[in-house]
Amino acid sequence: MPDAVRTVDAVWRIESAKIIGTIARMTGDLSLAEDVAQEAVADALTQWPTAGVPTNPGAWLTTVAKRKAIDTWDRRRRLDDRYRSLAHDLDESIAGADEWQPIEDDILRLVFTACHPVLGREAQIALTLRIVGGLSTAEIARMFFVPVATVQQRIVRAKATLGAANVAFEVPEASEWRERIGAVLGVAYLIFTEGYAATTGDQWIRRDLADEGLRLARVLAGLLPREPEAQALVALMEFQASRFGARMTPDGTPILLADQDRGRWDHSQIERGRVALARADAVARGRGRGPYALQAAIAECHATAPRFADTDWDRIVLLYEALASIAPNPIVDLSRAVAVSMATGPANALRIVDRIGTDGALRGSHLLPSIRGELLSKLGRAEEARSELLAAARLATNTRERDVLLAKAAALES
Amino acid sequence: MKYMLIMRATAEAKAAYENVPFQEIIEKMGAYNEALASAGVLLAGEGLADDLTDSFVVDFAGETPAVTDGPYGEIHELFNGFWIIQVSSKEEAAQWASRAPLGAGSKLEVRRVTEMSDFADFADTDAIKNEAVWRAEHGQE
After folding, report:
1. Residue B73 Cα, gap to closest chain A Cα (Å)
2. Are A253 and B124 in contact (CB under 8 A)?
3. Can you tell me the distance from the alpha carbon of A24 to that of A69, in angstroms, rounded to the nearest whole number?
4. Out of A24, A96, A348, B64, which residue is the most buried by the measure of CB atoms under 10 Å away?
């Protein structure tokens, strides 16, 4: 890739949210803002290689995009009376040149609009990475193993959906705030988790995606300094990402937490996680921890235990209980059972697992029989354990996991 | 990718700074740090004291390391601060570095921070393992 192209990409990465946010505020039209910003980038790609990169490339892009926005409005005004008064307002505001400077709320509005509930998750993710994260459509396509045209389609459709639904370029009303924040943080976390345990591609960890999710979460934490869950999400990701260097053998086989070389954990990242979690708690001011803060606190227990044997399982059990009470989820119950097994033994854990089994919530998943099998095996009930592990192997979709389960079952035969 | 932005200043830069109100320098640096943080790229950053009274040099030229007060005189560009940023390309690092509020006489040396993957071929040697343990114990990555 020629240097100028890479420079344009880098400038877009840094400036996209500010440029689009500013123009969307001035025009009230996110779709138009994205279009003109895109056109400005196209101009940069043709002009910078010969004319050189401008001294202030961000300002250059903003000016070009702004001029294009005004041209578009002029064109619409000539074509359609309905735009006339709107265009007049725009002329007025253009006179105040300062308003074309980004203000902090612009990016917040951008984030909420890109993650608006009228959009599906895929559309939210593509639009957020494109306009907030400043990734090129090619980069997004590469990350999700889809053709570039698919990403472009998703973005075009997302913009059309926002337009059709008449979504205003605004931060949500107080009554919607909680839910909308949840959606925004959820998009960042989805991007991260897809990188943390990839469901597509041949790599189990996709660092580029995880890094992107973390970067986005840091941006959100900066935009929402009073929102404990935004701070907590950063903490959770920092703790989880700190283990990347130790989670796989060189040939890509996952290494279990108990067996990881803790010396390979990124300890400055763990420290950043602790700082972020402390900030989340400080901001919450005694209102109690939310789901991300509780998950971060569990991750912190693991991250700060010098050896696996030093893990504070009692505390982890309490944190899982708190998590289950505010965000009931059978997977959380199963994790709690594993922690209980470590804290007070397999018999207590088996009772929890049997209760999940009775609820039928995880029917069809290999997780329930595989953990049940482990617990029975610890209790010395080999024959029952073996049949559970075989049942789990039949349900497992990942071949590597299936092999592990079959090997465990075989080991119980005697 | 992580990069370290290493700030180096000559006597010329130091002299120029003496004519700028301290408040202004603080504000510009604050705004720059804020921009890095709100873009989600800042991992760490520190300034190093101009006053060298508490600073010293450890020289390994002899058989045993020698701790001395200097000399700093031969160093024309004093290392006086750094940032560590996490970005997606060398060009992005260059864009951020160019925005640092520094003037004539100042330079930023920008170096990519090594990661474990740089040593993948040696990952199983004891030296790398020991280094990982050492870093863990000393709270470094």
Report:
1. 34
2. no
3. 10
4. A24
Give CA torsion, residues A213, A215, A216, A217, to 10 deg: 80
Task: Supply B33's token pair.
Answer: 């740090």
Residue A95 has what pLDDT?
A: 46
| Structure confidence at residue B139 (pLDDT) | 45
Task: Give residues 93 to 112 of B whose Cβ lies within 8 Å of A.
Answer: 94-96
Give the span between the Cα atoms of A414 and A383, in whole angstroms: 10
Query: With an 8 Å Cβ cutoff, are B92 and A13 in contact?
Result: yes
SS3 state of residue A269: helix
Report chain A's terminal Cα–Cα distance, integer Å.
61
**A216/A221 Cα distance (integer angstroms):** 9
Name the 3-class secondary structure at A312: coil
Q: Does residue A141 have a pLDDT over 60?
A: yes
* Residue A333 binned pLDDT confidence (cut-offs 50, 70, 90): very high
Chain B residues with CB-CB distance to A211 below 8 A: 86, 88
Band (A341; pLDDT cuts 50, 70, 90):
very high
Q: In this predicted structure, what is the pLDDT of residue A186?
A: 94
pLDDT in tens, A342-391: 999 999 999 999 998 888 888 888 889 999 999 999 999 999 999 999 99
Q: Which residues pair with B109 in a beta bridge?
A: B6
Burial environment of residue A41 by CB neighbours within 10 A (0 to 12, 13 to 18, 19 or more)? buried
All residues at 6 or more sequence positions from A216 whose CB lies less than 8 Å from its CB, including other chains: A128, A129, A132, A133, A187, A188, A191, B40
Q: Does B37 touch chain A (CB under 8 A)?
A: yes
| Spans in chain B with pLDDT lower than 70 | 70-76, 116-117, 119-141
Residue B113, chain A, CB below 8 Å: the answer is: no
> Which residues of chain B are within 8 Å of residue A264 when distances are taken between CB atoms?
116, 132, 136
CA distance A235 to A404: 32
Question: Which candidate, A41, A35, A43, places its Cα nearest to that of A11?
Answer: A41
CA gap A104, A21 in Å, rounded: 9
Q: Do A268 and B141 touch (CB under 8 A)?
A: yes
Under 8 Å CB-to-CB from A2, ≥6 apart: which residues?
A49
Q: How many C-beta atoms surround the C-beta of residue B47 within 10 A?
A: 11
Nearest CA in chain B to A305: B136
Query: ipTM score here?
Result: 0.81
Question: Token pair for residue A358?
Answer: 């009775």
Q: How much of chain A, in percent, has pLDDT values that exceed 90?
A: 65
